[in-house]
Amino acid sequence: CVASQAFTASTAFAAKPLTIGFSQVGAESEWRSANTASIKDAAKKANVNLKFADAQQQQSNQVKAIRSFIAQRVDVIAFSPVVETGWETVLREAKNAKIPVILTDRAVKVSDPSLYVSFIGSDFVEEGRRAGRWLVDYAKKNPGKQLNIVELQGTTGAAPANDRKKGFAEVIAADPKLKIVRSQTGDFTRAKGKEVMEAFLKSEGKNINVLYAHNDDMAIGAIQAIEEAGLKPGKDIVIVSIDGVRGAFEAMMQGKLNVTIECNPLLGPTLMQTAQAVVAGKPVAQRITVNEGVFPAEVAAKEFPNRKY
Ligand code: AHR
User: Which of 128, 143, 215, 231 is the most exposed place for a label (fewest CB within 10 A)?
Assistant: First the structure.
């Protein structure tokens, strides 16, 4: 009788679905939509009760969402931080409430690494380096004059903006012909990418040889601006961007984008597995990275049918 009671209790416990509170950055890009879809889909498949909150690119909304998850006593809090800094207080509140926190996609800068249990996402510095390596190689194959680069940065203070800038700058420093002449945020959106590119074209005229965009959406917005200025994107201005979304492959097949560096948004299944492991008391890695490639325009048509986002 005791054994059967114990069995019933543990079965009931195992059947209780896990509740995860997830605070998403927003819906700023094609990449982000794929990331949200991956998380929602994986939660459904894993029978996880997902409480999803869209922060609309505002850190204050994320802090509010995390506090509400703490008040609701969710099993795990996961979030993709809009910016890197300013998280100590709210993460300590989660830790004091004994709710484990998992970071996805973007990292935070905190003095106490025990404020989160795991970070699942890309190596953004390496993505920036890959973009830089492609350009250094391009410059080698096309020797001659100085190449003036304009840079569309991601959201100010966001890990991918900081890291992609750093990795790219580190690699192009090896070639004195490569020079960043303008650099400004386009907030990871198409609309802002277009607007800032228009301003770059106005101030620099035909002096721009290369555009480095921290994501495909800003590159796609900038392509519009370049065409409206009567120039040929991908030819008059070489374009290097990051993410590897379908829109970038389409632009490459049209000859308007030269290369995209992959950033994998399909983090949902790993998030669910990690959350389940944490709640079951199993050890998890503090850093989980994902495998990513580099796709130049020459391979776009062949790769396009294989793309999952
Ligand atoms: O944090 C990942 C970045 O955020 C993606 O590169 C970008 O498209 C998104 O907005």
Answer: 143
State yes or no: ipTM above 0.85.
yes
Predicted structure pTM score:
0.94
Atom of ligand 1 nearest to the CA of 159: 1
* Dist CA 278 CA 231 (whole Å): 53
The Å distance, Cα 97 to ligand 1 centre, comes to 30
Cα-to-centroid distance, 307 and ligand 1 (Å): 17
Ligand 1 pocket, Cβ-based, cut-off 6 angstroms: 28-29, 31-32, 105-106, 160, 188, 215, 217, 242-243, 263
